[in-house]
Amino acid sequence: MDRGCILAVDDDPIFLRVIVAALESAGYKVVTASDLASAKAILEEGDIDRFACALIDHRLPDGDGTQVLEWLRPHETGVAAIIVTASGERELMQQSMIGGACNFLQKPVTPWEIRAAVAIALSSTRQRRRAVETQREAQSAARMRERLIEMFVRGDVRVEYRFLPRNELGGDSLNHHHLPDGSDVYMVSDVSGHDLQAAYTSALCQGWMAGLVRSGGAIEAALEGLNARLLALEGEAGSFAVTVLKIDPASKCMTAWNCGGLPPVFVDWWGGVRSMGERSSSPLGWFETMKSTRATTGIPPGPVWMWTDGLESLADSIGASALSVAYALLAAPASELPAWLNWSNDDILTARIWPHSRANFTPPNCFHPLISEECSRRTAETIDSMQRRWKNSLGIALPEIPGDTMHDILLVAREALLNALRHGCYGCETAAFQLLYNPGERVLRVRVSDPGPGHDFGWQASPSDDELPGSRRGLMLIYALASRVSSRRQGAELVMDFILSPDLHIIRNQEAA
Amino acid sequence: MNQPNTDSRTITFAAPGNVLSTTAPLLRTQLTALFDQRAQPFEILEMDLRAARMVDSVGLNLLVWAWKTARSQGARLRVRIASPDIERTFRFTRLSNYIDVVKDFERPDHT
Description:
A: 513 residues, Phosphatase 2c, domain 1, five-stranded parallel sheet, 23 strands, B: 111 residues, four-stranded parallel sheet
């Protein structure tokens, strides 16, 4: 009967004989070493996995037994070790346990005690090896998932994405399908949890959706079918939050279905930041009646942004907008990701999809959204905290921005928003505040619009130089600090551009002209 | 705490931070109380804004009100600042043509 191979290391030949006798009589094979060097040589020369356990004397002629533990640890062999010490070495025992020993024995020791300790160690080795194997499988699956995402988004479409899983595996996923009718379908999904089950459920749900959509099935029907199946599992598979974006060049339209995910965001032909659909929908697997949202709009000139809730959580924790975080993640090289990512406690997935693009596509100069907020009149009371959020967002999206540029943009943004809230919003009406950046032309744009009748923004800073104006100092600041100002709807919609030099200082009116 | 300086013909008022729409109303109340406490005439109202990094249009309105109040009593307004950004704000709104600005900084302005 071979119950496993045990490595016994001790410089006392009599004690080694006791060990060999105790273990061989119980069916174990025993390999012996009398010092540290020969123990390491045995481990290095052969297959470490053949050892089921190691029994190591703490005091060896050329070192101490814990050095074997230090050697074993990085090799991830899973071999459990028992440290043998002389009596009265309690402190050494504690160190051994901290060093990775699974147990210790104090001399003198009986054959029965040796066999009992080895039996426990063997169980520990099995558990450790299962854990090591699971870890390897998870890493392998994670690599495969990353390759699959790369494969799905490759081809004749242009998608930039950043996938940063918290663990090896999790529930976030990105998928793309080019359909026979020429349309493209993108799915960004999230399953609760960051474990193997979440990854499995994610793959299953994405596979289900892919099968139906590619075979010509309607997206709504696919979502309803998946919802029914998740409900049939009575919560065992968790819930599946998904946002599906279909871009149809033939009809020049794109449609978004959102089930518990986040609505896609894009910049429309008029330069405004827009979301597709509502945020308040439920994931699949919650309710029998599926509560998805659906929105259709024309294909925008620039990219469409999609992300999962991990990005929103990270943005909240660092006091910035999700859009600015998404922009920063895609702007940073993969090898130089920003340090604030350490604040994340969830999977992060964000994608920028260029709907018009094809192979060898170079992204055109266009504005990317950094902030998009709806502000009620009460925002005027809390505008300082909002301004801090703008500052954080700008600092994250453009980390090199100088202090004076930051100051002027924040001051102009503040003046424009306060003006819109005071003069353009009544009751529950809201003003839209948006901040965008065109990196190709180095233009930062603040857009503020309100539902009011307008504010006579055609005003120019014209009073003579020796006159101190009695009012409209906010307008003076806006016109003086921004590079250019334009308005629509009698000033109810104001666009303030900051043209930046290569070192990101503002080029003012005269210089810009 | 801001106190009328009875040893000289100067009133000194220090703002603890930014002079903005959210802070200007309280600063104005404090400044009014300071004026009310002052029995004798003064020549200079000195506003210490060295703790401020931003002054918005409502803050500028406060400074204009202070300037007008000082002027009505035959006095001048002197403002101490430590931020080139605020100096730029004063310059672009022409306030620096009317008030004495004491700059406690050396950083070059990029505009």
